[in-house]
Amino acid sequence: MPPVIIGSFEEFEKYNGQSLGTSEYFQITQEQINIFAKATHDHQWIHTDPERAKTEGAFGNTIAHGYLTLSIVPHLWEQIVDVRNLKMMINYGIESLRFANPVLVNSEVRLAATLKNVANLRGTVKAEVEVKLEIKDQKKPAFTGVLIFLYHFQ
Predict the structure, then answer these.
(1) How far is CA 85 from CA 13, 14, 82, 117, in A?
(2) Is the dihedral of CA 119, 20, 33, 105 positive or negative?
(3) Disulfide: which of 36, 63, 116, 149 matches 102 by Cβ 3.0-4.6 Å?
């Protein structure tokens, strides 16, 4: 499904309370996990040691860092919404973030998004987006939360 195109507050407002869509699936690989571990200095063995994770871990394999799964949101978000006519976009906050299910290495995930609320704050658009990172063939999502973006349109 092509992304929803939004170029103004009024166009955002049309989607208030509605689903914005779902991204394509994205596979989480061990290489991505290792690169993320190096970048964040989080080398916990449940993420980076496949052999130990298989024998000692609770999941039978390595799992992605929770914050790695969160860090792919911009890539997935761009597949859902194409915001145009922008001066600037700012990640403003995250509310009610819950990591509900581990993402095993080589799992595929996708983002589902619903516009919870949009407001015009003296020319700055504040969008609150309910998100769920779904794991292919799993009932329980990797995480849920509300992302808050500030959009400054031209």
Answers:
(1) 16, 17, 10, 20
(2) positive
(3) 63
Q: How far is CA 94 from CA 20, 108, 146, in A?
A: 18, 23, 6
User: Taking a C-beta distance cutoff of 8 angstroms, is the pair 111, 73 a contact?
Assistant: yes
Core vs surface per residue 13-39: b (16+ CB within 10 A) or e: eebeeeebbbbeebebeeebbeebbee
Give yes or no for a contact between 109 and 26, defined as CB atoms under 8 angstroms apart: yes
Beta-strand runs (E) in 8-123? 19-22, 26-27, 81-83, 86-99, 108-121
Residue with tokens 């994770």: 53
CATH of the domain at 86: 3.10.129.10
Percentage with pLDDT > 70 across the chain: 100
Domain hosting residue 70, numbered range: 4-153
Q: Tell me the whole-structure pTM to 2 decimals.
A: 0.95
Q: Are residues 116 and 17 in contact, defined by beta-carbon separation less than 8 angstroms?
A: yes
Total structural domains within the chain: 1
CB distance 154 to 85 below 8 Å: yes
